[in-house]
Amino acid sequence: MSGNVDEAVRAGGVELGRVRQLWHLLEPLHAVLYYAPEVFEEVAALGFGIEERWPSYFPLRAAPLGAVGSERVASAFYSFSPRMVAEHMEPAWGITSPEAVVEARERGIGRAYRAIFGDRVASPELAEAAALARRAAESVNTAGRPLAAANAELPWPETPHQQVWHAATILREHRGDGHLAALLVAGLDPVESLVSFAATGAASVERFASRGWSAQEWAAAGERLVGRGLLHQDGTATDAGRALRREVEHHTDELAAAPWQALGPAATGRLADLLGEFWVAILGSGLLPSETTLGIGKV
Questions:
Q1: CA–CA distance from 114 to each of 95, 179, 190, 197, 201 (Å)?
Q2: Which are the contacts of 267, defined by CB distance < 8 A and separation ≥ 6?
Q3: CA–CA separation, 265 vs 253, rounded Å?
Q4: Among 27, 161, 188, 180, which Cα is nearest to 106's?
Q5: Residue 134 above 50 pLDDT?
Q6: Max Cα separation, the chain?
Q7: Among 183, 196, 180, 184, which residue's Cα sits nearest to residue 229?
Q8: pLDDT tens digits, 241-298
Q9: What are phi and psi of 231, to 5 degrees?
Q10: 1 pLDDT more than 60
C-alpha cells in the first residue's frame, strides 16, 4: 500500500512535505475552537463547565458523531483514557443535545475568528482560502474515518471564515483518523502511542499524561515498549523506537495526501500561501498552548 500511495503522490505532483505543511497550517485554525473565550461563552450558555477546557472539549469534538456514548468517543479519540472520556461524555447529552453543541461551536468560532482576524475576516484572501480549503475537504474519502465522516456530513456554514474552520476540521479529522490507522499498524495501543511519542521528545511527559492515564498504566506501557526494544529503561526512545515513530508519521502523511492530490499542486501551494497570515494571527493571539501532544515542528 505504501508504495502505491507514494506513486500517487508523485503522480499528483504534491509532495509529502507539502501535505505536512498544510497540516501545520490548518491545525491551529481548527484547534483554537477549544481555547477561544467566545466558544467558552457559547458552551457555558448551554450548561457546560468552563473552569478548564476538558468539559467542553469532549462534547465540542464529539458532537458531529451524534448522541453516542463514551465508549465510541474513546474509540474515535483513541489516546485518551476511557475513564477521562466517560467523566466528561456521560453527562454531556443530558446537559444539551449534540445538535445544540454543533450550532454553538459554529457561532463561537465565527465570533472568535472575527476577534482574531479583525477586518481581514472579510478579506478576499480569506474568501479564496475558504474556497480552496472547501474543495480539498469535499474531496476526502471518509471510508473508515469516523470523525472525518461525521464532520463532512454537516452542512457547510455560509460565511467564508466559518467555512475555513469547517474545512480545516474535516481535513484534520481525516488526517487524525488516518493517524490512528498508522498507530494500529505499528502495534501501538492508546497509552503506548503517547509513551512512545513522549520518549522521542515530541512533548513533555506531563503534557502527554494530561490525557488521563494513571502512573501505573503509563509505567506498564513503558515496560511493554522496553520489551519490544523501543524504549530504554530510562524512558527515552531507542533507535528502533525513533524509527517506528518516523514510520508512523510518514504513514500518516501518506494517508493524508489524497485531498491535496485532488486539489492539485498549484492550488495547494496557493492555499498554503493564503493561510500564512491567518496562521500567524492565530498563533499571535496567545490562545493556544506553547506545547501540545501533536509534536508539530518536532516530528
A1: 28, 31, 36, 35, 35
A2: 132, 135
A3: 16
A4: 161
A5: yes
A6: 56
A7: 196
A8: 999 999 999 999 999 999 999 999 999 999 999 999 999 999 999 999 886 655 444 4
A9: -130, 145
A10: no
